[in-house]
Amino acid sequence: xxxxFYVAPVPASRPxxxxxxxxxxKKYTQYREDMKMATANINFTPFECxxxxxxxxxxxxxxxxxxxxxxxxxxxYCDNNADIDNYxxxxxxxxxxxxxxxxxxxxxxKARMFWSNKARTEVTITKLEETNGQEGTMYKTS
Length: 142
Prior knowledge:
The protein is α+β, with helices and mostly antiparallel strands. It is built from three helices and eight strands, in the order βββαβααββββ.
């Protein structure tokens, strides 16, 4: 199952704690709301087995960069300061109860970050076959 979400990827952040409440920063909260809207109309029965997730994050090229730098970076691996594992956590949390019951079912991940003129996340979810206590198989290798 492959799906593209045209929501600008945002790395997950830690909740902020005050004396009166706990909250997430505004940018991450907005991302969670945008993903909730993007997944609202998906009619899919969540998998109940182990999952392999391929995640491709296309990070928006900053508008402040020169045309020459934008052209040079387009399609290249993203080298911004955000950690890829935080991008993974954000999208996997957003897809809970949509493609799987809980993100703990995701046992294998392939994730990449690219610079792009159009921010988006491309997600491919594959069921892993169970095999009598041995490592699950997804495909045969030669």
